[in-house]
Each structure stands twice: as structure tokens, then as C-alpha cells.
Amino acid sequence: MKTKISKFGTGKNDAAYILTVRKKGEKVLFGIVFVLFALYAVSFILPFLFLIINSLKDGLEYINDVSAATTFHTPDVWRFKNYLLAFTDMKFVDSVGRAVYLPEMFFNSLWYCLLYTFSGIAASSLTAYVISKYKFRSRLFFYGIAVFSMTIPVIGTTAAMYKLTYGMGIYNTPLFPFLTNFAGFGFNFLILYGFFSNLSWSYAEAVFIDGGGHFTVFTKIMLPQALPCIVTLFITSFITCWNDYQTLLLYMPDYPTLASGIYKIQLSIKRDGTKYPEYFAGLVIAVLPILVLFSVFSDTIMSNFTVGGLKG
Amino acid sequence: MVGIAKKKKSKKHEIIFIVCMLALPVAQWLVFWLSVNLSSIKLAFTDMRTGEFTWVNFRNVWENLTASYGEINIAVKNTFKYFLAHLLITNTIALVVAYFLYKRIALYKGFRIIFYLPAIVSSVAMTTVFSQFIAPSGLLGNIMNAFGRPLPPEGLLARAGSATNVIIFYTVWTGISTNMLLFGGAMTRVPVEILESARLDGCSAFREFFQMIFPLILPTVSTVIIVTFTTIFTSTGPILLFTRGDYETTTIAYWIFEKVYGNGVIGGSTANYNIVSCAGLCFTVVGVPIIMFVRYLMNKLPTVEY
Predict the structure, then answer these.
(1) What is the DSSP code string of chain A?
(2) How confident is residue A169, by pLDDT bands cut at 50, 70 and 90?
(3) Which of A128, A159, A177, B78 could form an S-S bond across to B273 if both were Cys, CB 3.0 to 4.6 Å?
(4) Interatomic CA distance for residues B83 and B95, integer angstroms
(5) Which among B29, B234, B253 has the least Cβ separation from residue A183?
(6) Which of A42, A45, A155 to mutate to test the interface with B (most CBs of B within 10 A)?
(7) Cross-chain residue pair A71–B138, CB shorter than 8 Å
């Protein structure tokens, strides 16, 4: 017998079909909410449309369109060249007078975010695994540190951090993202701690019987099982890092990433309105990699969000 | 005897393993968390010029806080505006949106991805376009002109009376993404069998939300509320991108950032770091009891095992 499939792909034999059952009055309510959702969604799509259309205009045409309130009009001449110019013309001049162009910013974004993300997750994996799986005397103390650091905000430490990184000689160097983010007791720790706690220890015992050691258990048995959780944390952390501009402005001024570099470029663009289309092309280029990454992993991100954080 | 020796050796290996695993992260925590916090407290009690112990930073913070146009005074007022908007408006909208997505409103999968976009798209790009939209010559300006109510020529972001409200509107507009997913994640864990039997008993969507779903996702709601409180004084928002703190838009977190960042000079601004640390310490002392009290209240809420 054929199962009746509802409009949204839920069969009646699926218990979740109840979520799509609506009474008469509710249908009206859902109709109104649908319209509101559609408007809200359009408000997020419009900015992209605006960026793409105006990134393909001539500088003067853009200025004329702004004053004539026709910014959403398609370009008279489609200037795909703006994307090339964004790579070759858009620049930021660092503290020693060196011009940094978009390709270098892209490269900086890549290595900075990889270092930042890798160090954060690596450190949390080490601490979360040991504290969740080994019963030693100070484990509760370490767990307490993590909870305390997460829930009690210590405000205004930026100045002290600034002085410390400057004093240590890691200010404005690639060591900064690695060392400052090699933090084993933050958000990632709590998520991984929850994950490792739920893993069975019998796998480890089997390895010990076969003569394997603690490192073998960790690297060959436990880490591979935590991979889905680690991948989710990696992607969300990478996206956050990609869009972070304040940390880089403050601690890595000579290594502009796409986020911090484009912020700096924006300040100079404001003086020359004809450069806006190139600038918009640069923004599209900056946004594109993260949109691609998100579209590939959107299901992983969406399905792994749960109570108070992420599940493994 | 062999068994005991083997056990001792195994214990020794375990200790070595634990030490190796924890050594670097603990060292990192000691240097970049503990010592930074201790050093920040020390800075608060240190005279900027002489380097000696002083209470003068506290007096300066107090004077700046109580002067009607003091930077800290304005920052505190704005901080509470942002906080209230986030706590009451953004979180409520996120909860309602999550409910309708959970109830599989038409195109819910598409909406969920689109509503999450602000969390993944660079805020530099978003604020640039938003600023263009609300400019006197932009989309909003033209709509207002059509209604015969033109925007002020300098724009809404260049006026002390409107700039903060506009930025707050922006943070609400783009701010529901993460909490929407957290609430949605919690809702998907509610057993649908409960909803099914309630529906068969004639339960309306209104009662379903307020009497069933909301109580069941209360642990997540309380987590979100606690996080909102913990970030009162620490999240700067997009102020740098919109106004750079001009037009009375400063918040405490932004004021701290701005004091240290200065004009982006290499090696830091020439600002008085001591007053920054002192203000931070004062707000920590005020903030921690509030957070502890909120946590206490949240722990008192009844939770349901399911």
C-alpha cells in the first residue's frame, strides 16, 4: 500500500508527521508567518543582490545610480573586470609601507584561520579526553577551571593581553594565533568532554590487552570516533575566525586577512566613491569561500546544534 | 609479585600520559588566562606614570561614570540598551522563529539556511550594504521621501539621537541565527509522541508551545539567558564598522577595545591602559554577582527528564 506523503515530505507512518498537522485557524497563522518569513529572508538576500549588481558597474554609473535611487538597476555595461581589479588594485599599506593586495589577504586568512582553529581544537581534544576518561585526583579541579572560565566573564583584560603579547614578542607574528588559541579549557573543551564521556572504555581495554598503550588508544581509537564532532567544531570555529576582524586589527596589524584588510580598505574607499564597485567585488570574493564551505557542510552544522551547544 | 610490578608500571605509564597530554594546555592557561587576569588586576591598582600602587584609577572611573557626558557613563547606558534588546527581543524572536521552523512551515529548510546567513557572512560586508540601504540616498531614504518624511541629510548613523538605535536594530535583525539553531535543536529532542497525543486530545498550537514545548526546552532557554548575561560587558558588536564609537554609540566592550586599539598604531595606542583595566575590574565585580544570581535562579527552574 502506498504511504500518503504530505506536502513537506513526511509520511503518515513517520511520527514527525504530527508537526505538519494544522487546524483551520492555525493554517491562517502559518500563512501569515510564512509571509513574514519570506520578507525576512528577502531582507538577507537583497544585500547579496545589491553587492553582485553593483560590483559589476562602472564607478561613475554607481554614483549616478545612488543619487538617482536606482542602485538595483542592472549595469549598462557589465564590468567583470572589476573582479580582476579587486585582485590587482585593492590594497592595504602596512606599518612599514608595504602594499598588501587581495591575494595575500586571502592567503593570510587561510593560514591564520587554519592555525587558529587547529590549535584550539587540538588543545581541547587533549584536555577533554584525559579529564573525561582518566580518574586522577585533580580532574575535577581542571573541569572547574573550564566551567569557571566559560561562565565568569573577566572584563577589560585586553590591555593586559596586549602588553603580554607585546612583551613576549608574539605580537604581530604568526605565533600569536597558535599560542593564544591553544586553549584547552574553553567552549570546545566542554563539547568534546561531553562527547568523550559518552564513548565506551571497552575499546581501550581491548587495546591494552593487545599490548597497546595510552597514546595508541587516543590516536587510533578515540580520536577517529570523535571525528564528526571535531569536524563540526572545526567548521564553525573556522567560519568565526574567517570573519573576525577585531582580533587581527589589534594583535596582527601587518597580517591583514580578508576581513581586517577589507575593513582597512573601506576607510580609504570612502574618500573615492568611484572605487565602490571594485570594493564590492572584493567583498563578494571575501564572502564566497565561506559560503561554499557552508553550503558543503550546512547539513552537518544544522543537524549538530543541540541543547547548550553542539552534539557529537 | 610480577603482577604488582606490571600494575605499577602501567600506573606510571598512565601518569606520564596524563602529564604529557595536559602539560601544554595547562601552561597556556597559566600564561594567557591566569597571568593575564592577575596582570589586569595589578594594572588597575597601578599609577600610569609612576608605576606605584594607587586608587586614583578607581576615582577616575567613578568620575567618568557619574559625569553626564562621561565616556563610561554613555557606554554603560548603551551597554544596557544592547543587553535588553538582546535578552528580550532577539532571544524572543529566535524562539518564535525556531518554533515555526520546527513545525515545518513551508520551505522551512530554505528559511533555516537563509536565516543563518548573517552568522557566516562577514559583518564587514553586511554592515557596508546596510549602511548603503539606510543612507538618505539609499533604499530607506527613498521610501521615506515617497512618504514625505525625508531622512536627516547627515544620515541616521551620524546623529547621536538615532545612531545607537539603528545599530541595535541591525544587531536584532542579524542576531537570531545561532540561538535559533540552539532552540531548534532542543525542540527536535522533544518526543513527538507527546505532541501527537496532545493533538489528538485537541490541544491548540498556542497551548502546545506554551504548555509543552517551552517547558521541555527550558534548560536550553536558561543556558541562552545565562550566556546573554555573561556577554553583557564583553561583546562589542558592529560599532567599529558603523560609527567607530562616534555619536554616543560606545559600549563598555567597545570602549575597552578602542582605548587599546587607538588608531591602529603598531605597538598600541598611548592610552591609559590602567584605567581600562580598572574599569574592567569594576564591571567584573558588578557583573559576577549578577551572573551568579541569574544562574541560581535558572537552576531553580523545574526541569523535565525526557
Answers:
(1) -PPPBPTTS-BTTSGGGGGG---HHHHHHHHHHHHHHHHHHHHHHHHHHHHHHHHTS-HHHHHHHHHTT-TTSPPSS--THHHHHHHHT-EEE-TTS-EEEHHHHHHHHHHHHHHHHHHHHHHHHHHHHHHHH---TTHHHHHHHHHHHHHS--TT-HHHHHHHHHHHT-TTSTHHHHHHH--SSSHHHHHHHHHHHTS-SHHHHHHHHTT--HHHIIIIIIHHHTHHHHHHHHHHHHHHHHH--HHHHHH-TTS--HHHHHHHHHHHHTT-GGGHHHHHHHHHHHHHHHHHHHHHHHHHHHHHEETTEE--
(2) very high
(3) A159
(4) 17
(5) B29
(6) A155
(7) yes
Residues 6+ away with beta carbon under 8 Å from B85: B168, B171, B172
Q: Does B230 touch chain A (CB under 8 A)?
A: yes
Nearest chain B Cα distance for residue A2, angstroms: 22
Per-window interface: B 63-82 vs A, CB < 8 A: none
Structural domains counted in chain B: 1
Provide the ipTM: 0.88
User: Residue A74: CB partners within 8 Å, gap ≥ 6?
Assistant: A53
Same-domain check for residues A71 and A162: no
Regarding whether A76 and A123 lie in a shared domain, the answer is no
Q: Which residues 261-280 of B have a C-beta within 8 angstroms of A?
A: 261, 264, 266-268, 273-274, 276-280
User: Which residue of chain B comes nearest to A22, CA vs CA?
Assistant: B205
Is A295's pLDDT higher than 90? no
Q: What would the mean pLDDT of A256-272 be, rounded to a whole number?
A: 86
Q: Are A129 and B21 a contacting pair at CB < 8 A? A: yes
Which of B104, B129, B253 minimises the CB distance to A47? B129
The CATH number of whichever domain residue B96 belongs to comes to 1.10.3720.10
pLDDT band at A302 (very low <50, low <70, confident <90, very high): confident
How far off is chain A from B8, nearest CA to CA, in Å? Answer: 14
Is residue A92 within 8 Å of residue A291, measured between CB atoms? no
B115 lies within 8 A of chain A by CB:
yes
Q: Nearest by CB to A262, from B124, B141, B257: name it.
A: B124
Question: For residue A87, what is its C-alpha cell?
Answer: 585582485
All three cell numbers of A140, joined, read 575535577
* Contact (Cβ atoms closer than 8 angstroms) between residue A53 and residue A72: yes
Sign of CA dihedral A251, A256, A259, A265: positive
Residue A276 included in any domain: yes
Which of A153-167, B141-155, B255-269, B285-299 is the least confident region?
Answer: B255-269
Which structural domain, as residue segments, surrounds residue A285? Answer: 99-310
The CA distance from A149 to the nearest CA of chain B, in Å, is 9
Determine the length of chain A.
312
Measure the CA–CA gap between A173 and A255, rounded to whole angstroms: 8
Q: Is the pLDDT of residue B231 over 90?
A: no
- For residue B235, the enclosing domain spans 59-300
Are residues A128 and A225 part of one domain?
A: yes
Nearest residue in A to B218, CA atom:
A307
| Cell numbers standing for residue B135 | 543612507
